[in-house]
Specification:
Elements lengths: L9 H21 L5 E10 L13 E12 L4 E11 L5 E11 L2 E4 L4 E14 L3 H12 L7 E2 L4 E17 L2 E12 L3 E12 L3 E12 L6 H7 L2 E10 L2 E8 L5 E8 L14 E9 L5 E9 L2 E11 L10 E13 L8 E18 L3 E19 L5 E3 L2 E14 L18 E13 L4
Parallel strand pairs: 4-7
Antiparallel strand pairs: 1-2, 1-14, 2-3, 3-4, 4-6, 5-6, 6-8, 8-9, 9-10, 10-11, 11-12, 12-13, 13-14, 15-16, 15-23, 16-17, 17-18, 18-19, 19-20, 20-22, 21-22, 22-23
Length: 442
Amino acid sequence: MHYERICKHWKTVGLNLHSSCKLAFALLLCTLPLHAASLSLGTGNDWYTMGLGYNQDDGLSFGAEIQLSLDSGLSIQLDAQAFTDRIVSQRRFDVMTASVSYPFTFHATKLETVISPAVGMTMTGNLGFQDIQNSYHDLIGRDPVLLAYDDCTQDAHPYLSLTAISGHFFDLLFLGVGLDAKVIPSWEYSVSSSMHLAYHDILAVQLGYEMKWGEDLYPTQKTQEARYEGLKLGYTYDGGLLQSFYTTYLTSGYSYGGFAFDVLSLLSPKSFTQADFTFSTGFLYDELGQQSRLFAFSFGNISFETRHKNGPMFNRMEDQDDRLNIGAWTIGYQMGPENTKSLALPYAKLLAGLQRFNLQQDYTTTLSEEIRPIVGLEVGLRIGKHGQWVIGNQSYRFRLATSVHYVLFHNTIPLIPDFSEHTGPLLFQFGLVIDIEHDLKN
């Protein structure tokens, strides 16, 4: 699909969108004096796979979010999402929703229920997100995504939603069920139900099922609905300053995740005294310069970790339609001295688990789908004193990490040119990790 086929009135659309965004952002800023509790600025992308599914850089390709929550509980949210379809129709469309919601809480003897209705407006069509995507692709050396819009104009739809969660607290654990329904007349209707398991108010895991019914306003809409419905698995993490989320649709293999920063949390009074739970995230690079994303949850010395890399192979960038998906899921045991006066301390970590090696040709043909056991060793330096950098009840520390994974039975993985450099037997990585320690008693 050539760029010339894209709508001719692109600049007019972009200017209109720019003015709308400035107005929406100004309204958010005007509400800040109204006892704001949090202001989160976030971004999302389909390269959050956690090693599951596939990353075709397609479907819900990227997005952004601004959310302002007031002390009263009222929440104002602006969501922007870019959908692409390079596989079926070679078309795209954008979606942006502005909404206001309020949570109503009901307490019973053994149940706590929160019902949150929301009302707002959804815009669909050509909102100019292709320019944003291709500017970023140019920055990181990726091929541009040049697709014609399904609709060169913009359509407005009323937005209504209802989210309900009900369950019981077992000390630090919460177990419950949730229901989410959205009504966007002339665009889409959806309903999903899920089981929720939450640890304190920090980490929640959801397993559920989602159904969608579109109005077929755009030809591509049905394709996107099929990608983002059915059985789904996800998590949300609220770490104060840093927040993270992820959802994968297990039937289609499509996923979406991201992170946000609550800038108002920087004003929280310091209350951290001890580490009860640690969330870690970071970026690690292999010998080819390909990036892996690390996510880990630790209790004491024991950690549960996933690291994943996906996208075109750096050693075959001339063919970016062949995409790897490599993920590792491990349990770790960390050792090292703890000295409150030292600015840098060495540590070592033993790792064991499973690693997945997937390669997709032209987005849809599977050339490799293999899982092998792995063992590993990580060594590095922890930077900063314990409790030196504190925001609220969280303490932040950095790690310089070097790791090596040994892939057992690696010789049984089929040899594929260029891809074999990513399958072992020894896989080295180096990078920077941030540890966020949570004090659950404050």
